[in-house]
Automatic annotation (TrEMBL):
Protein name as catalogued: Glyoxalase/bleomycin resistance protein/dioxygenase
UniProtKB keywords: Dioxygenase, Oxidoreductase
Native organism taxonomy: Bacteria, Bacillati, Bacillota, Bacilli, Bacillales
Molecular functions (GO terms): dioxygenase activity
Keyword Oxidoreductase: yes
Family matches, as Pfam families: Glyoxalase
Gene3D superfamilies: 2,3-Dihydroxybiphenyl 1,2-Dioxygenase, domain 1 (3.10.180.10)
Source organism of the structure: Halalkalibacter akibai (strain ATCC 43226 / DSM 21942 / CIP 109018 / JCM 9157 / 1139) (Bacillus akibai)
InterPro entries: Glyas_Bleomycin-R_OHBP_Dase, Glyas_Fos-R_dOase_dom, VOC_core
Regions crossing the membrane: none
UniProt domain VOC: residue ranges: 7-126
Amino acid sequence: MMRDPNKIFHLAIPCKNLDETVVFYEKLGCKLARKYDDRVTFNFFGDQVVCHLSPEHIDLTPKMYPRHFGVTFTNKQEFLQLLDEVQKNELPFFQELTSRFKGKQEEHLMFFLVDPANNLLEFKFYHDTTMAY
């Protein structure tokens, strides 16, 4: 089943400092929707990400697998525009731009960012968009 455009995916993640979280996600291009004493909510590329203040739940040694989240682009130009903005805004990479599964149908470009609470964000673009799912 394909995603129904009238539904918004929701993800809740920990953060250690609300102000630095807002700065990071706004530099990423996410719009701040709400800010409370214990959480901030963003429009994360059309979905909802809520960062809950919980410094005791921060992963001190994050790894790409198995826990990360992000966006799969179907438009290469939009993917490259985001990469350009990330670089201009000097957001911290966990992994620089690379190609995965080179030469295979599922080959894709990808990079990982790390937010101020060590949450890992993956952004990718499949050359063959039928491989996105």
